[in-house]
């Protein structure tokens, strides 16, 4: 069989099992469910080779066989992915863990893991001949899609809450996107984008309303496994808003099992949310398959402020199937954890990333994580995108003044 660049086969509805053509433009299934990209497993088994992949360039396109873009010419890249999996020895010691690692997604273009989803989504949009995209966002996704759209020559229409991190407005503007602010939350932005797309025929790329953002995000799972020499860790913690990264990592683990690159992984997936917006935690505690809309949500970890996710049932499936856990942490605990990582490891993590460390603290305390387990926390974004999350205390000096310690 000839080697192909991508082994994408079709799109599949996890609710009603309907199939769609991956070379045609698709959003949701007719039943309203998100669609998932499916691959030719036999072709992958025959032609994809993990040794060969490990010699490729250090970005997420090294897994091209497992990604949806059929023609390499359509790839729009700024070097996203293959971020370091850092050992956190002194932080681990503080948390009574012998094997704590942080995957530092802050090193991606645009400073967050949203670059992965945007790179995959924009590349596929280009392949499908789309010329304009529209997106509701809490900031980081809009910044990433604006950036990759500029690189691809697509028009980008971004709608975000007016209290989203300021820097993300600048990023959208720098990339020449059409930016709108809304006095509301991401769900409100979503309604506005839905109407805009209907009226003008723009392509809607809200979380899971197009199938390929997820494919970019799943590469975090591929990388974690490759970086650990294809020996899955015991626990992975993910700061959850819409939950796409967690769904993606779960999908990656299933695909890698199917092609036989990892053994029957026992990795437990953990969803960490903020106390001020914890619909998934609520649903998980009540053993439900879907979540309810969280009213009046608020958290300093802005990327996790998603009152109701279209993919909630997929997040919950991932937690149930892996014997995982869902828990919430307060904003105070998040900021404390952020300082703890910075002081002990020199890593300035985003509030979202810090929430996973706050989560670990609780799960070690209640005995759910054992001290010898291999634990991976995702720092989904760079702390430098959130300068206001740190309170600076620096005395002001006159030029002739001396410092007394
Ligand atoms: C968007 C975002 C999240 C949450 O991602 P979901 O896929 O929506 O769960 C977490 N951290 C950061 C920094 C984000 O920008
Ligand atoms: Zn369906």
Characterization of this structure:
The chain folds into two domains: 8-75 and 113-204, Rossmann fold, CATH 3.40.50.1100; 85-107 and 218-385, Rossmann fold (3-Layer(aba) Sandwich). Helices cover 36% and strands 15% of the residues. It is built from 13 helices and 13 strands. A hairpin with a 6-residue loop joins strand 1 (8-12) and strand 2. Helix 4 (114-127) runs parallel beside helix 5 and helix 8 (213-227) crosses helix 9. The structure holds pyridoxal-5'-phosphate and zinc ion (ZN). Residues 13, 15-16, 18, 29, 31, 33 line the site of zinc ion (ZN).
Question: What's this model, at a glance?
Answer:
The chain has 405 residues and is of the alpha/beta class. The protein is built from 13 helices and 13 strands. A 6-stranded mixed beta sheet has the order 4-5-13-10-11-12, with helices on both faces. Strands 8-7-6-9 form a 4-stranded parallel beta sheet, with helices on both faces. The protein has a 3-stranded antiparallel beta sheet with strand order 2-1-3.
Radius of gyration: 21 Å
Which cofactors or ions or other ligands sit in this model?
pyridoxal-5'-phosphate, zinc ion
Average pLDDT figure: 97
- Give the helix level as a range of percent: 25-40%
How would you classify the helix and strand content by structural class?
alpha/beta
Q: Please state roughly what percent of the residues sit in beta strands, choosing from under 5%, 5-15%, 15-25%, 25-35%, 35-45% or over 45%.
A: 15-25%
Report the CATH topology name of the largest domain.
Rossmann fold
Stretches with pLDDT under 50, minimum 5 residues: none
Name the shape in a single word: globular
Number of helices, where a helix is a run of at least 4 consecutive DSSP H or I residues: 13
CATH class assignment of the largest domain = Alpha Beta
Strand order of the largest sheet: 4-5-13-10-11-12
The count of β-strands is: 13
N- to C-terminal distance: 72 Å
């Amino acid at each position: 069989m000839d080697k192909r660049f991508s082994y994408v086969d079709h799109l599949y509805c996890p609710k009603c099992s309907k199939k769609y053509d991956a070379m045609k433009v698709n959003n949701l299934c007719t039943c309203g469910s998100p669609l998932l990209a499916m691959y030719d497993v036999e072709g992958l088994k025959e032609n994809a080779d993990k040794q060969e992949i490990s010699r490729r360039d250090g970005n997420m396109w090294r897994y091209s066989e497992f990604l949806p873009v059929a023609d390499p010419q359509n790839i729009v890249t700024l070097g996203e992915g293959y971020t370091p999996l850092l050992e956190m020895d002194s932080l681990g010691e503080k948390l009574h863990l012998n094997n704590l690692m942080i995957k530092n997604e802050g090193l991606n273009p645009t400073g967050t893991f949203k670059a992965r989803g945007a790179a995959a989504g924009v590349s596929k949009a280009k392949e499908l001949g789309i010329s304009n995209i529209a997106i509701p966002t809490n900031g980081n996704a809009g910044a990433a899609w604006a950036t990759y759209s500029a690189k691809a020559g697509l028009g980008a229409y971004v709608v975000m809450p007016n209290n989203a991190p300021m820097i993300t407005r600048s990023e959208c503007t720098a990339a020449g996107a059409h930016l709108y602010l809304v006095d509301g939350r991401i769900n409100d932005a979503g309604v506005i984008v839905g109407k805009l797309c209907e009226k003008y025929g723009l392509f809607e790329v809200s979380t899971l309303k197009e199938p390929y953002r997820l494919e970019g995000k799943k590469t975090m799972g591929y990388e974690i496994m490759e970086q650990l020499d294809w020996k899955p860790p015991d626990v992975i913690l993910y700061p959850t808003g819409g939950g796409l990264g967690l769904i993606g990592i779960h999908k990656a683990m299933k695909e890698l099992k199917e092609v036989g690159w990892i053994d029957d992984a026992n990795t437990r997936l953990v969803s960490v949310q903020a106390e001020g917006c914890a619909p998934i935690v609520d649903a998980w505690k009540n053993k439900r398959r879907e979540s309810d809309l969280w009213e009046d949500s608020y958290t300093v970890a802005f990327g996790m402020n998603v009152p109701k996710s279209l993919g909630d049932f997929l997040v919950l499936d991932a937690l149930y199937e892996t014997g995982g856990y869902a828990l919430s942490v307060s904003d105070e605990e998040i900021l404390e954890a952020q300082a703890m990582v910075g002081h002990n490891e020199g890593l300035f993590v985003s509030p979202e990333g810090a929430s996973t460390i706050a989560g670990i603290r609780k799960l070690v305390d209640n005995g759910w994580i054992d001290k010898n387990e291999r634990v991976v926390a995702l720092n989904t974004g760079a702390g430098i995108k959130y300068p206001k999350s740190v309170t600076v205390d620096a005395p002001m000096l006159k030029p002739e003044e001396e410092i007394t310690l």
